[in-house]
Each structure stands twice: as structure tokens, then as C-alpha cells.
């Protein structure tokens, strides 16, 4: 039998060369065995096609513009593509019929979420609606959300949305360069008023805190953002070797303290005899009936706040905070992002802006001194088509929130194992030439009703898939689309949205494909010139808002 010692007798040079040789051969055998096993497993089970995953690490998924990467794979392998992230199965769906079948018709199997260790287990103590697995807690939280956000009920919130849009206009008149923060303020304050019956303080501290929470959360939920979500075994490491755990818990502490404070303020005001009309008040009233504890309520309506110290989560009190917080969080950024995309569209397609403004002036009068309200909705079909086209042209959630399957399934002959994370590529559907001819062009006309048909506010959510699918469809969709409509028509009424010019006088236009990082897609920062279109009585508007 030859051994390392034999070679030492014959010369050190030889021993150094022979050790790596054996290792290399062993590695080659292991890699070959992996691929052979993979090949036979795939053959036997008929997985969907896709790029061959690397051993151990699997396929790599970019954290930026993942929808474009997914679509490029579908162009090579077909509309259903399989990926693997360190052993976790993933399925990319590029076509609506497959999404409707799996996430819609088979939704009892495809309505869970991939369990994220960083954002789910530690940052959200497993209570945040958007990350919950399919089960009793999800059903409770969604039922409570539905009660407060269904299409019929949101009709009662129109006054809040209209007042919010008046403030948006006055803010922009006073500070025309602050469009970004004014739009975020509009969407966040609308939600804060609905959830906690409270406006932001003038210093904007609460808003800044909320935006910070949202920004980091959107990054944290990307499945490839934190190594522990790719290799869950890392969660076995002790705290000393897993600094990310403390970081996630700290984020939870900060946001939970914020939500809880807002929730408790509402309770305090109710105890003082205030008759509050807001989600949080209803949650307190129905807490027992809904079976939600304080943590669930706090997260479910969306309001994140920065708190200077670390708050250790107490899971036993964890249900009511989440309900309140989730709506606030889930709604603010997506709604604001859609209004920002509308501005990008106005700058790149000024003829559509003009057409919408002509419609508004025809209905309200060129000299109207109050902006549009929901009573004008039916008479503004082009504006409605404009907003729907924004949802299609630049969906703020281009791959939705991925769903996860609970059981093994077979679809179109492909084996889909339990625990597969399914990415419905909303962006790809919205840019499918057959469905929407000339898909990269912003063209509201494609959504104009035929034969003078009257549109209802619910029609804002039809003809595109911007709000997701099946049993996880966005519960805030009816509120959201109306907030976007209100914000966009108010801006169109009050301002010409113009591009700045460079030194040579050429307009500087925002690039519609430039987005901020994350699983969602907000436009990258851009400059605009907001030129008032009419003489607006700011004092009268401010008075209307205050009332
Ligand atoms: C234009 C604005 C909005 C867009 C485009 C949008 C889109 C979406 C999408 C695509 C999903 C994932 C659906 C799926 O998994 O299939 C979602 C989930 C969710 N949205 Fe929205 N949303 C918006 C505004 C809102 C608002 C205003 C609220 C609350 C008031 C809200 C609350 C939620 C919640 C709680 C979830 C998680 C649902 C679950 O996991 O079961 N969203 N939204």
C-alpha cells in the first residue's frame, strides 16, 4: 500500500505534488457525482428548465433589477424557469396564464412566503403580514385588513385622500424643489391618518423615521441579501459569530417601539373619551374578536418610527402591533413610487400630460380654484387611463412579493417540489408585446374605455397585475389606486411638469429604466421643474386642508 511516508523516502518534491493530485481527483469525482446525481434527479422528475446551478451555492440572483434578469432567462429557457439558491427551489413565471393557474387557481398550495431568517424571524418576530407563512395568523391578519380596506369601505376615506392632495399642492407651491419628500409625505400621511387618526408633526421626524425603516426593510427582504437567508445553517452560529442577528433585532426593536407607541397613543385617546375613526381604534375595539395581540396589531397598520434604544421583543404581546404597522409600511412607498413614476411619464411623454390637463380643465373649468375630487372621477376617463398606464408601464413591485408552495405539485409536466419560491414577473407581463403592443411606450390610450363606458374607481385595478395575485393579492389595492389617482390629477391640475435644461438648453429627462435598489422599483432620483398652471389661492387651500 503506498502512503505519504513512502514518498517522503523518495523525495519531498514528489510528496508535495502528489497530495494536491489526490485532493483534486477527489474533488473532481465529487463534482462529477453531483452533476450526475442532479442530471438523473432532473431526468426522473422533469423539473422546469433553467441554468445549471453551481454545487453548494446554486444559481446567483442579482439584487438589482432582478425582473430583467429573470426575463432574460425566460427568453433562453422558456416562460417557466427553475433556479436554485443554495438548495432552495425557485420558479420564475413569465406569462400570465401560468401565474393565474398556479397563484390563482391553485392558490391553496401557492400562498405561503419563503421564511426569511433576517427579515422574518428576527426583524419581524414572525408577525409581519407580508412575510407570514400561510396559516391561521395570516388569515386573521388578512381578515382584519380586508375589513378596513375592502373596495366598499375605502369609499369612506375619500375625504382624507382629498385633503392630503390639497396639502400636496400647497407644499409644492411653497417648496417646488421638494417634490420627492412632498409626495412621500402625501402618501404616508394619508395612511397615518387612516391608521392612527394623526397627522405628521411639522418637523417631519416621524416621516423620516418611517422612510428609513421602509428603505432598509425593502432591502432586507431580498432573498439573496443576507447570507443567512441563502444558507439558513448560519443561524446556528452563536451571537458572537453572527453580528447580523443583533442588527436585525435592533431594527425590530426600533420599529416595534415606534408602532407600539402610535398604537398605544390611540388607546390613550380612546380612554380619554375621544371618538376616533381609524384602523387602530377599530383594532382595539375588535382585538378580542379578531384574536390579535398587541404586536400583531402594531405591525399590521403601517407606521414605523425611529427609537434611540434597543427594544427587546416580547413575543407574547406580539400580534396587534403588526397589523397596524404592515398597512402603513406596505402602502407608503408603493403608493408614492407610483406617483413618482407618473412624473417620469409626464416628463418623457409631455403630450399625454397635456391631454390629461385639457380633460381636467374641460371638466373643472380653466379658472377653477379648487383641485379635482372624487366626484369628478367619472368625467376624467383619460386621467384614469393615465394612472392605469403608470401601473402597467412601471410597476413598483415588478416581481410582486414571491409566493411559496406548501406541497409537491406537477404543472405542464414539470415537477415543483414543496417549498418552491415562485416569482411572478409582473414587469414581464406588462411588457409582453402580444398583451400590450408597443409595450415600452407610455400610452394611456390603451386603457381608454370604449363606447363612452363610465369607469368606476375599481376599474383602476383592472387590466394590469400591479397588485399581485391569488390569496396574497394586495389588501390595500383599492385605497392605493385611489390615492395614486388623487395625487396624479392634483399635480396635473396645479402644475406643468417640466424637465430642467442643461447648459446648452437641452431638456434633461429621467431615464425610465433607472430604479433604486431593492425588490421594489422606485424611480431613481431626478430633477423636475414644477410650474404652476393657474393662480392658486394658497391660503384658501390651506384653510380647506386644515378643515
Ligand atoms: C400603488 C400602491 C401599491 C402597490 C402597487 C402594491 C402592490 C402590492 C403587491 C404586488 C403585493 C404582493 C401581492 C402578492 O403577494 O401577490 C402587495 C402586498 C401587500 N400590500 Fe400592497 N401595494 C400598494 C399599496 C398598498 C397599500 C396602500 C396598503 C395598505 C394600506 C398595502 C398593503 C399590503 C399588504 C399588507 C400586503 C401583504 C399581503 C400579504 O402578504 O398577504 N399595499 N402589495
How is this structure best described in words?
- With 547 residues, the chain is mainly alpha-helical.
- It has 2 domains: 1-45; 129-397 and 431-546, Cytochrome P450 (Cytochrome p450, Orthogonal Bundle), CATH 1.10.630.
- It has 19 helices and 8 strands.
- The protein has helices at 4-10, 12-45, 66-77, 96-105, 117-122, 136-149, 158-174, 179-196, 205-220, 227-230, 243-271, 279-290, 294-300, 322-348, 350-364, 381-393, 426-430, 477-494, 538-546, and strands spanning 80-85, 88-93, 403-404, 409-411, 414-416, 421-424, 495-498, 529-532.
- The protein has a 4-stranded mixed beta sheet with strand order 1-2-6-3. A two-stranded antiparallel ribbon has the order 4-5.
- Helix 1 packs antiparallel against helix 2 (12-45), helix 11 packs across helix 13 (294-300) and helix 14 (322-348) packs across helix 15.
- The longest helix is centred in the first third of the chain and has 34 residues, at 12-45.
- It is globular and about 85 Å long.
- Residues 1-17 and 300-321 have low confidence and may be disordered.
- The site of protoporphyrin IX containing FE (HEM) has 30 residues, from helix 6, helix 14 and helix 18.
- Heme binds at residue 474.
- It holds the Pfam family p450.
- InterPro entries: Cyt_P450, Cyt_P450_CS, Cyt_P450_E_grp-I, Cyt_P450_sf, Cytochrome_P450_fung.
- Belongs to the cytochrome P450 family.
- GO terms for molecular function: heme binding; iron ion binding; monooxygenase activity; oxidoreductase activity, acting on paired donors, with incorporation or reduction of molecular oxygen.
Amino acid at each position: 500500500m503506498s502512503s505519504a511516508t513512502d514518498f517522503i523516502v523518495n523525495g519531498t518534491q514528489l510528496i508535495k505534488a502528489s497530495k494536491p493530485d489526490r485532493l483534486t481527483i477527489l474533488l473532481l469525482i465529487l463534482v462529477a457525482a453531483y452533476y450526475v446525481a442532479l442530471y438523473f434527479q432532473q431526468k426522473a422528475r422533469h423539473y422546469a428548465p433553467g441554468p445549471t446551478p453551481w454545487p453548494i451555492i446554486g444559481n446567483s440572483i442579482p439584487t438589482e433589477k432582478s425582473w430583467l434578469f429573470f426575463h432574460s432567462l425566460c427568453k433562453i429557457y422558456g416562460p417557466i424557469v427553475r433556479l436554485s439558491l443554495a438548495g432552495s427551489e425557485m420558479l420564475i413565471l413569465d406569462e400570465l396564464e401560468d401565474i393565474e393557474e398556479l397563484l390563482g387557481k391553485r392558490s391553496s398550495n401557492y400562498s405561503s412566503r419563503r421564511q426569511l431568517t433576517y427579515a422574518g424571524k428576527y426583524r419581524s418576530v414572525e408577525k409581519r403580514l407580508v412575510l407570514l407563512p400561510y396559516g391561521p395568523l395570516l388569515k386573521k391578519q388578512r381578515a382584519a385588513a380586508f375589513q378596513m380596506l375592502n373596495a366598499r369601505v375605502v369609499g369612506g376615506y375619500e375625504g382624507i385622500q382629498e385633503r392630503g392632495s390639497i396639502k400636496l399642492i400647497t407644499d409644492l407651491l411653497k417648496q417646488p424643489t421638494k417634490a420627492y419628500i412632498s409626495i412621500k409625505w402625501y402618501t404616508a400621511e394619508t395612511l397615518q391618518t387612516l391608521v392612527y387618526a394623526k397627522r405628521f408633526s411639522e418637523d417631519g421626524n416621524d416621516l423620516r423615521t418611517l422612510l428609513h425603516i421602509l428603505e432598509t426593510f425593502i432591502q432586507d427582504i431580498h432573498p439573496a441579501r443576507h447570507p443567512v437567508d441563502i444558507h439558513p445553517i448560519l443561524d446556528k452560529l452563536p451571537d458572537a459569530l453572527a453580528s447580523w442577528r443583533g442588527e436585525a433585532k435592533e431594527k425590530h426593536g426600533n420599529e416595534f417601539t415606534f408602532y407600539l407607541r402610535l398604537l398605544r397613543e390611540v388607546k390613550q385617546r380612546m380612554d380619554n373619551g375621544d371618538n376616533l375613526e381609524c384602523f387602530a381604534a377599530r383594532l382595539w375595539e375588535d382585538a378580542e374578536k379578531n384574536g390579535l395581540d398587541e404586536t400583531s396589531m402594531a405591525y399590521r397598520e403601517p407606521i414605523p418610527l425611529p427609537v434611540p434604544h434597543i427594544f427587546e421583543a416580547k413575543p407574547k404581546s406580539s400580534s396587534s402591533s403588526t397589523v397596524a404597522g404592515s398597512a402603513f409600511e406596505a402602502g407608503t412607498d408603493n403608493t408614492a413610487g407610483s406617483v413618482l413614476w407618473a412624473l417620469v411619464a409626464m416628463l418623457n411623454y409631455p403630450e399625454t400630460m397635456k391631454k390629461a390637463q385639457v380633460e381636467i380643465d374641460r371638466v373643472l373649468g380653466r379658472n377653477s380654484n379648487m383641485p379635482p375630487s372624487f366626484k369628478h372621477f367619472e368625467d376624467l376617463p383619460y386621467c384614469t387611463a393615465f394612472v392605469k398606464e403608470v401601473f402597467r408601464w412601471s410597476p413598483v413591485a415588478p416581481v410582486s412579493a414571491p409566493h411559496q408552495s406548501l406541497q409537491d405539485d406537477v404543472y405542464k409536466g414539470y415537477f415543483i417540489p414543496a417549498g418552491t419560491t415562485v416569482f411572478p414577473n409582473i414587469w414581464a407581463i406588462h411588457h409582453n408585446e402580444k398583451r400590450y403592443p408597443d409595450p415600452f411606450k407610455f400610452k394611456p390610450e390603451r386603457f381608454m374605455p370604449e363606447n363612452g363606458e363610465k369607469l368606476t374607481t375599481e376599474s383602476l385595478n383592472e387590466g394590469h397585475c400591479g397588485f399581485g395575485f391569488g390569496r396574497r393579492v394586495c389588501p390595500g389595492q383599492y385605497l392605493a389606486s385611489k390615492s395614486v389617482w388623487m395625487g396624479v390629477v392634483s399635480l396635473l391640475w396645479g402644475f406643468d411638469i417640466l424637465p430642467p435644461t442643461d447648459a446648452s438648453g437641452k431638456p434633461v429627462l429621467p431615464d425610465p429604466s433607472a430604479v433604486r435598489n431593492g425588490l421594489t422599483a422606485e424611480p431613481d432620483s431626478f430633477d423636475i421643474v414644477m410650474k404652476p398652471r393657474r393662480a392658486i389661492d394658497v391660503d384658501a387651500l390651506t384653510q380647506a386642508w386644515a378643515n
